[in-house]
Amino acid sequence: MASHASVRPMQPADLPQVLALQEQAYAGAEFEPERVEVYTNRMRLAPAFCLVDIAPGGRLLGYLVSHPWREAAPPALDALLPVLPADADCWYLHDCAVDAAAKGRGVAARLHHVALDRARALGLRKAALVAVGTAAGFWKRLGYAPRALPGMAERLADYGEGAVYMERAL
C-alpha cells in the first residue's frame, strides 16, 4: 500500500533495486541507463536529496536523485561530479522513477515534496530538471515550466528527442 510507504535516504543496499527500476523506467529511451557510480556519487555529495520510497515489505516503489546545483546548467548524463558548487542557487532533480506497479499512487509527488522542503530549508530559490520522454506533463502539474535558453538544445542532445529543461520557483 502506498499510504504505508516510507520515504528515507537512499542507501547502498538500495542500489540493486534502484538500477532495476531505472532499467524498467527508461526501457526504450534514447539514452543508456546511468552507471551505478552516478548514484553512489550523488548519495555521497547530497545524501539528504537522494531518496527512496519503500513499501512495508521492502520493495522499492520509487526513487529521486537530486542535489544543489547551478541554474541553467544541467550536468551531463552519466557524469560523476567531483563536488557540489559552493555557489549553488538551484535544486536540481537528476532522476526520478516510479515502479510501473506503483504509478498513480503519489510516489513521485511524495519524494518530490520531501526533497523540496529540504531545498527550501537550504535557502535555494529555484528547482530545475530535464524532463525526458513524456514526463514534462507530470512536472508541469508540480509547477515546472519549460525554459528555453541559448545552447540548451545542444546540452540536452544526449537526453533524447523531446527532452525539455524545466524550472520552477521554490
UniProtKB/TrEMBL annotation:
The lineage of its organism: Bacteria, Pseudomonadati, Pseudomonadota, Betaproteobacteria, Burkholderiales. Gene3D superfamilies: 3.40.630.30. Residues 5-170 form the N-acetyltransferase domain. This is GNAT family N-acetyltransferase. PROSITE patterns: GNAT. The keyword Transferase applies. GO terms for molecular function: acyltransferase activity, transferring groups other than amino-acyl groups. It holds the Pfam family Acetyltransf_1. Keywords: Transferase. CDD domains: NAT_SF.
